[in-house]
Amino acid sequence: MTPKDLKAIVRTVPDFPAPGVQFRDITTLIGHGVGFAAAVGHLARLAQAAGAQAIAGMEARGFIFGAAVAVQLGVGFIPVRKPGKLPVATLGVDYVLEYGSDRLEIDPGAIAAGERVIIVDDLIATGGTALAAAALLRKAGAVVPTAIFAIDLPDLGGAAKLRADGIAVDALMQFPGD
């Protein structure tokens, strides 16, 4: 399946979570066996081309796509978690969201110094979470050259922010608006 075919599988839910928002629901793609396999295959080829030595994914849907890509490439997966979810001493970073703040954490022993870690996630919108994950991975000693997404919402500027931070960005599909 081509990225255009995959885009047709993604459901758009109008006025969620607020009036005027067109929510891009990736769960319809995850639930479509052939489409999900094709999406993971496309993402894995992009990650391999970027020289992935490990894949990092952010909780929660980044776990779905990132772990599947890691398995396909035969590399490790680094879960970037919400606070308080890891049973060991963590390395963390606080970051600002549109309406507040949040924190991401990782097991610092999960990354070898200089390891090429590619971020894989379902969607890039404003870029706050992806930027925080990249900062956290770098803090742990990783090299983060690339971030790959199933969906980019370019009007929200997240991919541009990642590029401004020196991270190449690729996505399987784009949707206009928010």
UniProtKB/TrEMBL annotation:
Is Transferase among this UniProt entry's keywords?
A: yes
* Subcellular localization(s) per the UniProt record: Cytoplasm
Query: By its UniProt entry, which Pfam families does this protein fall under?
Result: Pribosyltran
List UniProt keywords, sorted A-Z.
Cytoplasm, Glycosyltransferase, Purine salvage, Transferase
Q: Does the keyword Zinc apply?
A: no
Please state every residue range assigned to the domain named Phosphoribosyltransferase.
53-149
Q: What is its EC number?
A: 2.4.2.7
Q: Which reaction does it catalyse?
A: AMP + diphosphate = 5-phospho-alpha-D-ribose 1-diphosphate + adenine
Q: What class of enzyme is it?
A: transferase
Q: In which pathway does it act?
A: Purine metabolism; AMP biosynthesis via salvage pathway; AMP from adenine: step 1/1
> Which molecular function terms from Gene Ontology are attached?
adenine binding; adenine phosphoribosyltransferase activity; AMP binding
Question: What's the family?
Answer: Belongs to the purine/pyrimidine phosphoribosyltransferase family.
Q: What does this protein do?
A: Catalyzes a salvage reaction resulting in the formation of AMP, that is energically less costly than de novo synthesis.
Provide the protein name.
Adenine phosphoribosyltransferase
> Where does this protein come from, organism-wise?
Pelagerythrobacter marensis
